Amino acid sequence: MIHNEGTLTLTAPSKVAGAQLYRQDWRPEETPKAVILLVHGYDEHSGRYQYFAEHCVKQGFAVFALDHWGHGQSAGTNGFVPKFSVYHDGLETLLQSMPDDLARLPLFLVGHSLGGLIASSYLLNNQSRFAGAILSGPAIKAVEEPSAVLVALSKTLSVITPKMGVIGLDANAVSRDPEVVADYLADPLVSGKKISARLGLEMMKTMDMVQQNAAKISIPMLLLHGGKDSLAAPEGSVFLEQNISSTEKQLKIYPELFHEIFNEPEKDAVLSDMTIWMDKILKL
After folding, report:
1. Does 230 qualify as catalytic in the annotation?
2. Is the pLDDT of residue 39 over 60?
3. Residue 219 reports pLDDT greater than 70
4. 259 is annotated as an active-site residue
5. Which one from 40, 71, 88, 259 is the annotated catalytic residue?
6. Does the pLDDT of residue 148 top 90, yes or no?
7. Is 229 annotated as catalytic?
8. Which of 27, 78, 100, 199 could bond 191 through an S-S bridge, CB–CB 3.0 to 4.6 Å?
9. Catalytic residue among 113, 158, 196, 237
10. pLDDT of residue 150
11. Considering the chain, what percentage of its residues have pLDDT values greater than 90?
12. Domains parsed from the chain with CATH numbers
């Protein structure tokens, strides 16, 4: 396996143009059959996907990933984003940096949690670039739908105190594997910061946008979700499966799994389900 790492510079029209983002890729020794653009979740980073990458490389796929602005080894403020489009700008910059020989290969978009929301919203204007998309525990619907009062309060706080932490995540809900939870809590690149008022509002607005425009998505899509996910509602994946217009789509809910299905004890089966599906799409 070949591993490369480096940095990218965000360019206009990003709200944080000039910021440095950490990026890395994993490639097979031989020419890959396709490339995976991996989009990680909230308060984590691309380095947590080493096992994911190793599995995919063994199956002949290259994996490209970055640490979002405000995450991992990238520049930015933990828990905060000035505008949701900053995440899209990061993906665009990563895509533009891809070597020409790999850029010509079929491309799959894989997004987990917040990364699933980033990926699905990015698809609304960019789906023609991808052979298919896989969403893992995507944050499409909140576990508890926010009340009108909470939405109004979020709008106010987003203006007055945009960086104030308002929503905390339970690390124990990440995985049923206690080692995964312990590693997550000990990871120096995991900030433990609450989701800020601004990011919370940006997420709510983007969730609503994806729900309102889901029918515009028509590329092949695989939706994977843990049935006992208490951080991102499984109903979000169900909603997408029912509302996207893709003729090639599949929903798989793993009844006992928690949020990070790629880090659960059954991760090998989950990863195999994903790569088998991608191989099927490549043959269509």
Report:
1. no
2. yes
3. yes
4. yes
5. 259
6. no
7. yes
8. 78
9. 113
10. 67
11. 89
12. 2-282 (3.40.50.1820)
